[in-house]
Amino acid sequence: MTALSAILPEIRQDDATVFARDVIAGLSATPKRLPPKYFYDEAGSRLFEKITRLPEYYPTLTELAILDGAAAAIARFAPPGAALVEFGSGSGAKARRLLREMPGVRAYVPVDISAEFMNGEAARLQAEFPTLAVLPVVADFSGSFELPAAAHAMPRLGFFPGSTIGNFEPHEVTAFLARARNVLGQAAALVIGVDLVKDPDVLHAAYNDSRGVTARFNRNLLVRINRELGADFDPGAFEHHAFFNRELRRIEMHLASLRRQKVRVLGRCFAFRAGETIHTENSYKYTAESFAALARGAGWAVGAVWSDPQDYFSVQALVPEASKGGI
Ligand code: SAH
Ligand code: AVI
């Protein structure tokens, strides 16, 4: 392991190397942090699916209800013969709802970093929609990536549900939305789920569920680092902390060390004070206006917004700035 860390700068930038570098860099930083995209190994994806079924986790339940009510209106943003491109597709449960209302869509392109989980879900979806071309792409959408050749010839509609956009820093949101325009084409629309600022008690309950599933999801990151990087974290020696940071309008998730301890990762030693945390996730909450301002910065305008009666969550159809009102 020491040898691997010594040659990290020289060896090929494969997924394992990038993961190793990000973990070493994050644990070397002050305060310590780890990127949330690494939650999603196969176990993490399954734990996230469990979260979506928790009564406290309002985002999924609310967004599904919004999509059911708005599916026909959303379908109008899909040109005939389009490819539906979903960023961070997970189980694809939300895409299924849209695809049932979009008989003219020819291809579904789920894009996700969680390879095994996405490929399994894509195969299931293909069996349910036999005439649809299901073209999964394993990629990290925080950088650039290519669509499959077959999708290049089709007009495209983007779909980014779940408020996964909330896991980006605001400046990263603008960069992501600009890249999404390039991936989707300058005429395409992007339907995006955006979680809204609300009563902090509701937010707190959603990220501190009574069954401890979110805590397991958070700690699974340490289990993954142990397995994939030969580290010796004791996941039981870290506690799940999640709270709403009012000033920055974000839920923060941390793993707090229960005691003074040392952990070895790839031959390096990381010391923790009792109570010291690893910051594992931010989940930003927006107002309709604050999100529209970010979208404008990336050349998008808000073409339509759907919400729930409590204004907990929004689904927004972003359109190229010049075409606002044209659909
Ligand atoms: N869209 C689903 C899943 C949301 S969970 C829903 O709304 O319920 C977030 C999903 O995005 C996971 O499937 C995760 O694997 C994926 N993901 C997170 N960060 C990613 C990244 N940087 N690149 C690609 N996929 C990512
Ligand atoms: C995927 N993402 C938008 C989820 C969220 O709410 O930030 C991940 C999650 N973290 C804790 N619970 C769910």
List strands and helices in order, with pairings:
Layout: H1 2-7, H2 15-28, E1 32-33, H3 42-52, H4 58-75, E2 83-87, H5 93-100, E3 107-112, H6 115-128, E4 133-134, E5 137-138, H7 149-152, E6 156-160, H8 170-184, E7 189-195, H9 200-207, H10 213-229, E8 238-245, E9 250-257, E10 261-265, E11 268-272, E12 277-284, H11 288-297, E13 300-307, E14 313-320
Parallel strand pairs: 1-12, 2-3, 2-6, 3-4, 3-5, 6-7
Antiparallel strand pairs: 7-14, 8-9, 9-12, 10-11, 13-14
Bound molecules: S-adenosyl-L-homocysteine and N,N-dimethyl-L-histidine.
S-adenosyl-L-homocysteine is lined by residues 37, 40, 45, 48, 52, 60, 88-90, 94, 112-114, 140-142, 161-162, 164.
Task: Give the CA-CA distance, first to last residue.
Answer: 56 Å
Helix content: 25-40%
Main sheet? 8 strands, mixed
Q: DSSP helix count?
A: 11
Structural class based on helices, strands and sheet pairing: alpha/beta
The set of bound ligands, ions and cofactors reads: S-adenosyl-L-homocysteine, N,N-dimethyl-L-histidine
Radius of gyration: 20 Å
| SSE series | HHEHHEHEHEEHEHEHHEEEEEHEE
What is the approximate shape? globular
Number of strands: 14
Indicate the low-confidence ranges by residue numbers.
1-5, 7-12
Strand content: 15-25%
What's the average pLDDT? 94
